[in-house]
Hints:
About 40% of the residues lie in helices and about 15% in strands. By secondary structure, it is α/β, with parallel strands linked by helices.
Amino acid sequence: MDTTEEVRFGIRLPVYGKFPAANPFDLIRTLTTTADLGGIASVWSVDHFSMPDESIAAAGGVPGKNAPLEAWTTLTAAAAWTKSLQVGTEVTPMTRWHPSILAKVTATLDVLSKGRVILGAGAGWFPPEFTAFGLPWYRLDHRFERMYESIEVIKKLWIEDVASYDGKYYTLRNAQLLPKPLQQPHPPIWFGGQSDRILRSVVKYGSGWIPANNTSPDEFEALSTKLKAIASESNRDVSEITLSGPFLTQIDWDHSKVRRSIREYSRKAAGGKDASGWNTAFGRTLTYGMWGTPKECIQRMETYIG
C-alpha cells in the first residue's frame, strides 16, 4: 500500500460468542459509540445464520447456543447510535438473499444512516447455514453467477427510476425502488475473498476488497499486484478501489498475556495442525495478526502500509 494513501481503521463487531452479559446490547452500543468518538472509520458485522462450532467456541461461546446476531439489523442499531461511522457486512452471502429484498434493506439503511452503508458481498462458503434453513446451496460456478446477477439487479434498483432486468436467475419488470440510497451513484460494494474470481468481481463491480484474515505481507502484496493488473486490463482506475486487511487484533501492555490469549483462541479455532502440532490458525495469527503491545502492533501494521 502506498504510504501517501489515507490509512483508516475499522472494527468487526462481536456478534457471536461470549458476551459479558446475557444480552449483547450494551457491549455493542459501547463499542460503536466509543469507535465513533475515537476516530474509527467503520464498523463491520459478519453476515451468517450460523457458523462452525469451532468459531463459536474460539469466541468464548457455546456451540448450539450462541449463533450470530442478524447482520443488517445489528448495523441499523450501530448506525442509530453513531454519527460518522460507515457500517458494512464482512460479507453478505449474496445467494442467501433475493437481490430485490437486499436492495431495499440496504437502501433504507443508507437513508437512515445519512449515507454510511457499505455492502460487503461474497459467494458464500458455509453450506450448513443454507441447508439447515431450507435454502439451496449451489455449486461454486452457480453461486458466482448468481452473485454477479444479484449485484447487477441491486445496482439497477439503486440507480434507475424504473428498472427491468432479464437474467438467467433474476427478473425485474418495471420495478421502482424508493427511497433511493443517499450515496451517489450508489453505496460502495466491497468483495470478500482472494480468488481470481473475487479479484475480477472487485474490478468489475466493486469499490473495495477484503482479503482473508491474517494475510501475510507477501501475500497481500502479491494479491494487490494481481488486482492492479486485472484493473489495468479492464481500464479500471485502481485508485477507485479501497484495499483492506482484516486481522485478529489483541492489544495489551503485557506481551505475554496477549500471546496466551491468542494461543487459547487458536486452541479452539477451526483449522489443521502444522508439523510442530500448532493449530495453523494460531501460527498465522502469531505471525501476521495485530497483537502485542501498542508499539508492537504499530510495527506489525507498518509491514503492510510502509
